[in-house]
């Protein structure tokens, strides 16, 4: 065909595009406006390409081809956007993939509580109005040794709430080495500003001493804040002041000692080969008055921000209007209560909490699983080369960045197909598969892949490599 004019005149009418079978088949699934606007977009795209001088064949101008293009615009409405992912990245608490997977117990509780009504805010002894936090308060105080506890939407909210409720209009002292930024634009100095506190920085980035805190205290000081430097480490000539050493100073000057633990562990994880970090209970014991931590990091529960500490301070925090604004919903509460319950018997945590199972997996188990995947792929005679390689997993979620969990991976190098195209196909599946890309290959790390996902993972990889969409 020749001539822009002629091409433009041959563009099919939107009505004709809409009558094509592929779009008619969608009439029962999508509202008419979406079908119409998709057909309009497909025609408009073609017009734009003609005006840009692109080669357009007669076949591309056929109403059926244009309708096929229109179906692509309908796709976002046809499949859920938030969908399941098989996490083959080896990053266990991957923030972009939803952090900690929940236990079976937590999932069952979410279902039971959310399909009907619940005791969310009713005191079953008196029949009167009760408290939403009461469902986890006893568990949290038992597990941490703190006097009181409350829970909000996430840890960023917990920090903001605690600082605002306790320190608005006054000054908080923080070590320069702890002025952290956590992924997703959570910066301690900005949180303080939002909470109406004045930030007083002390020490240098690598070294802060007790005398630095002491020298900075003024009439306006109300809080000494410690922040876990979750996602980075300063290595070498460093020193910071542990909470236990700050405690006498806080007491002497009548200040609140607060610590944002970030991940906040309820049990000692050194038995999994992870480095020693003080547990929440040890932090309480060290005398910290208010402690905040996340529910969906190393705890292995739902997204939540947990605050534990002194009763008088927790009551003040709980009464602040922000506490209402940041309150936790019943689904989260259901999941959190059943996750915390597992910690009552720490030995069962390893079997029941997916995140602990992942930590506990040995390199030998990893190797067996990777070999199984490799054999499955090998048997298909696909145009790829396969290799079992030593590989490390990461904790993720900004926790323990220096830790490498040893194991294995399967490296898939396509003979001709591009790794990018392969990755895109995998992301479009339901469930989607997210591997790591390195050395022009896909790297599959099995540590965060559940056993029951193994076979499906192999099938999806095979389909993607064969070019099946
Ligand atoms: C992760 C983290 C936060 C933010 O917690 P969210 O639950 O993601 O809101 C705050 N402080 C520290 C030290 C963290 O590691």
UniProtKB/TrEMBL annotation:
Q: Which family does it belong to?
A: Belongs to the SelA family.
Pathway connected to this protein: Aminoacyl-tRNA biosynthesis; selenocysteinyl-tRNA(Sec) biosynthesis; selenocysteinyl-tRNA(Sec) from L-seryl-tRNA(Sec) (bacterial route): step 1/1
A GO BP term, please?
A: conversion of seryl-tRNAsec to selenocys-tRNAsec
Q: What does this protein do?
A: Converts seryl-tRNA(Sec) to selenocysteinyl-tRNA(Sec) required for selenoprotein biosynthesis.
> What Pfam families does the annotation carry?
Se-cys_synth_N, SelA
Write the signal peptide boundaries.
none
Which named protein is this?
L-seryl-tRNA(Sec) selenium transferase
Compartments where located:
Cytoplasm
Task: State the EC number(s).
Answer: 2.9.1.1
Q: Which GO terms describe its cellular component?
A: cytoplasm
Please list the residues that carry the modification N6-(pyridoxal phosphate)lysine: 297
Major subcellular location class = cytoplasm
Ranges for domain L-seryl-tRNA selenium transferase N-terminal come to: 8-47
Instruction: Write down the required cofactor(s).
Output: pyridoxal 5'-phosphate
Reactions catalysed? L-seryl-tRNA(Sec) + selenophosphate + H(+) = L-selenocysteinyl-tRNA(Sec) + phosphate
By which gene is this protein encoded?
A: selA
A GO MF term: L-seryl-tRNA(Sec) selenium transferase activity
Q: Does the keyword Cytoplasm apply?
A: yes
For this UniProt record, the keywords arranged alphabetically read as follows: Cytoplasm, Protein biosynthesis, Pyridoxal phosphate, Selenium, Transferase
Domain of life of the organism in this record? Bacteria
């Amino acid at each position: 065909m020749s001539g822009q004019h002629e091409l433009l005149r041959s563009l099919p009418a939107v009505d004709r595009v809409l009558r094509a079978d592929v779009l008619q088949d969608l009439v029962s699934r999508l509202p008419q406006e979406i079908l119409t606007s998709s057909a309009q977009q497909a025609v408009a795209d073609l017009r734009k390409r003609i005006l840009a001088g692109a080669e357009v064949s007669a076949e591309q101008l056929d109403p059926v081809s244009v309708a096929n293009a229109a179906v692509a615009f309908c796709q976002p409405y046809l499949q859920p956007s938030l969908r399941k992912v098989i996490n083959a990245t080896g990053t266990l608490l991957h923030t972009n993939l939803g952090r900690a997977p929940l236990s079976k117990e937590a999932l069952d509780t979410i279902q039971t509580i959310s399909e009907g009504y619940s005791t969310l805010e009713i005191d079953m002894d008196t029949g009167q109005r009760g408290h939403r936090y009461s469902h986890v308060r006893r568990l949290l105080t038992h597990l941490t040794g703190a006097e009181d506890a409350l829970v909000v939407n996430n840890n960023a909210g917990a920090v903001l709430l605690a600082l605002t409720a306790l320190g608005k209009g006054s000054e908080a002292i923080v070590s320069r080495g702890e002025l952290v930024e956590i992924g997703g634009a959570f910066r301690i100095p900005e949180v303080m500003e939002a909470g109406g506190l004045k930030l007083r920085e002390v020490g240098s980035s690598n070294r802060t001493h007790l005398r630095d805190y002491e020298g900075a205290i003024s009439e306006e000081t109300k809080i000494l804040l410690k922040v876990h430097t979750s996602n980075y480490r300063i290595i070498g000539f460093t020193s910071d002041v542990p909470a236990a050493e700050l405690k006498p100073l806080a007491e002497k000057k009548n200040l609140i000692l607060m610590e944002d633990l970030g991940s906040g562990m309820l049990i000692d994880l050194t038995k999994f080969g992870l480095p020693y970090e003080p547990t929440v209970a040890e932090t309480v014991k060290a005398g910290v008055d208010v402690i905040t931590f996340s529910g969906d990091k190393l705890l292995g529960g739902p997204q939540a921000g947990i605050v534990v500490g002194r009763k008088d301070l927790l009551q003040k925090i709980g009464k602040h209007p922000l506490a209402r604004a940041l309150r936790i919903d019943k689904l989260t509460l259901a999941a959190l209560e059943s996750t915390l319950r597992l910690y009552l018997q720490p030995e069962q945590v390893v079997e029941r909490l997916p995140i602990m199972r992942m930590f506990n997996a040995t390199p030998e188990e990893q190797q067996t699983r990777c070999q199984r995947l490799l054999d499955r792929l090998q048997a298909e005679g696909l145009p790829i080369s396969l290799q079992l390689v030593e590989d490390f997993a990461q904790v993720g979620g900004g926790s323990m960045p220096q830790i490498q969990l040893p194991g294995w991976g399967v490296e898939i190098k396509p003979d001709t197909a591009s790794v990018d195209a392969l990755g895109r196909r995998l992301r479009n599946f339901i469930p989607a598969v997210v591997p790591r890309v390195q050395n022009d290959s896909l790297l599959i790390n099995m540590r965060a892949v559940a056993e029951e996902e193994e076979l499906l993972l192999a099938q999806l990889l095979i389909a993607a490599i064969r070019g099946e969409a």
